[in-house]
Amino acid sequence: MTSIDSLVDSYLGAVAQAGADLSPQRREDLLADLREHITTARAELDPETEAGVRTILDRLGDPASIAAEARQDEPSQPASMPATNSHVPQRRSSSRVWIAVLAVLGAVLVACCIAGVLGWLLFTNSAGEVSVEEPLPVSSPAQPSQTG
Amino acid sequence: MCRVEHQAGLATALRRGTLEFCVLALLSDGERYGVELVRELGAEIALTTSEGTLYPLLSRLRRVGWVTTSWRESPAGPPRRYYSLTPEGATALDHFRSEWTTFRDAVDRVVGTDRRS
């Protein structure tokens, strides 16, 4: 494989990755169209140079933008096409994300409570021990440790 | 930052729903192969972001049957796939032309873009 071929392959790979959430058929369609464009445009280069192929890929543009375009195309099809449900799984997955975020927040909250209780217990224990050695403020005659 | 995003979103929103008819209009002049078609549209900066973003649109036009494609031998290099307008596509383009004129005039009147200074 030449370095030009690997350049093209890595570009198409980036598009495939950016469009990983598209339906398999839509993604394959898109990749076939781009592959065909690159093949035709390469054949028009005379001579074929790496710089020329880079220009072809640059003009095709950012893989993420192309995938985004294909994604936005899915729900807004003309009325003659059957409606796709591509919105539904997206919503489902976003609610899944929220559940995960809430679960993590809940876990953090519980951990904080436990840490707080443990810390309080430790503090009161050590405070009890230390208070014997520490000079107590003079102005606290009400303390039971002093009277006892 | 918000304003930039909003502007980009506005351009995208304006393209959506109009760009496909620009494709149909180009094809009403005569068939074109993919590279030719996206380069012509890509030359209109206001119409498109990059050549690659036009392929999802072409794919959609094929699916709804407004354009059809056929492979032809090319004088040099691999065969090319030519896009041409179907009768349904031509009807859709005619319909768009009349809708667009009404729409554009109404927007111009309301927004004030019809007042040439």
From TrEMBL, chain A:
Q: Where is this region: Disordered?
A: 64-88
Membrane spanning segments where? Answer: 97-123
Does the keyword section mention Transmembrane helix?
Answer: yes
Bias (Polar residues) occurs at 75-88
Domain of life of the native organism: Bacteria
| Transmembrane helix among keywords | yes
Which protein are we looking at? Answer: Uncharacterized protein
Q: Which organism is it from?
A: Micromonospora sonchi
State the organism's lineage.
Bacteria, Bacillati, Actinomycetota, Actinomycetes, Micromonosporales
UniProtKB/TrEMBL annotation, chain B:
Q: Which residues form the Transcription regulator PadR N-terminal domain?
A: 23-94
SUPFAM superfamilies named in the record? Winged helix' DNA-binding domain
- Show the Pfam families listed in the entry: PadR
InterPro entries to which the protein is assigned, alphabetical: Metal_resp_DNA-bind_regulator, Tscrpt_reg_PadR_N, WH-like_DNA-bd_sf, WH_DNA-bd_sf
Q: Which organism is it from?
A: Micromonospora sonchi
Q: Write down the superkingdom of origin.
A: Bacteria
The name this protein carries in UniProt is PadR family transcriptional regulator
